[in-house]
């Protein structure tokens, strides 16, 4: 790149002042500044586009690697399943002869799943109940009428 030091900038400014003249120099400097800004933006856009294309190529390569790995896993699973099915069929065919004389065992029945929490629909807060009880924090919400009835001042007769 061009090495522009302070001395070279001063020489260029002096030559521009002599050649262009003091009346047109500010307008020319403004124009040169805008052109340099546009050039820098253009270069930045080109760099960004190149970086995007490189990232896109890397993503495509990564996608192909993942797809090939998925295909390999799928084929290994399919071959394992086929081998297992063959072994089970072979075991079943040998066991059929032995089971013909023996009685069949009753099928195993598993109990139905029950959720262990009794009140699973009840929303529970993060603060434990023992902490609320110790510090006197309300644990149940009162309706408006219940609140009025509870906190109504007592009449002295």
From TrEMBL:
<keyword id="KW-0811">Translocation</keyword>
<keyword id="KW-0472">Membrane</keyword>
<keyword id="KW-0175">Coiled coil</keyword>
<dbReference type="InterPro" id="IPR018448">
    <property type="entry name" value="TatB"/>
</dbReference>
<dbReference type="Pfam" id="PF02416">
    <property type="entry name" value="TatA_B_E"/>
</dbReference>
<comment type="function">
    <text>Part of the twin-arginine translocation (Tat) system that transports large folded proteins containing a characteristic twin-arginine motif in their signal peptide across membranes. Together with TatC, TatB is part of a receptor directly interacting with Tat signal peptides. TatB may form an oligomeric binding site that transiently accommodates folded Tat precursor proteins before their translocation.</text>
</comment>
<comment type="similarity">
    <text>Belongs to the TatB family.</text>
</comment>
<dbReference type="GO" id="GO:0043953">
    <property type="term" value="P:protein transport by the Tat complex"/>
</dbReference>
<dbReference type="GO" id="GO:0008320">
    <property type="term" value="F:protein transmembrane transporter activity"/>
</dbReference>
<keyword id="KW-1003">Cell membrane</keyword>
<keyword id="KW-0813">Transport</keyword>
<comment type="subunit">
    <text>The Tat system comprises two distinct complexes: a TatABC complex, containing multiple copies of TatA, TatB and TatC subunits, and a separate TatA complex, containing only TatA subunits. Substrates initially bind to the TatABC complex, which probably triggers association of the separate TatA complex to form the active translocon.</text>
</comment>
<keyword id="KW-1133">Transmembrane helix</keyword>
<keyword id="KW-0653">Protein transport</keyword>
<dbReference type="GO" id="GO:0033281">
    <property type="term" value="C:TAT protein transport complex"/>
</dbReference>
<dbReference type="InterPro" id="IPR003369">
    <property type="entry name" value="TatA/B/E"/>
</dbReference>
<feature type="coiled-coil region">
    <location>
        <begin position="52"/>
        <end position="101"/>
    </location>
</feature>
<keyword id="KW-0812">Transmembrane</keyword>
<keyword id="KW-0997">Cell inner membrane</keyword>
<protein>
    <recommendedName>
        <fullName>Sec-independent protein translocase protein TatB</fullName>
    </recommendedName>
</protein>
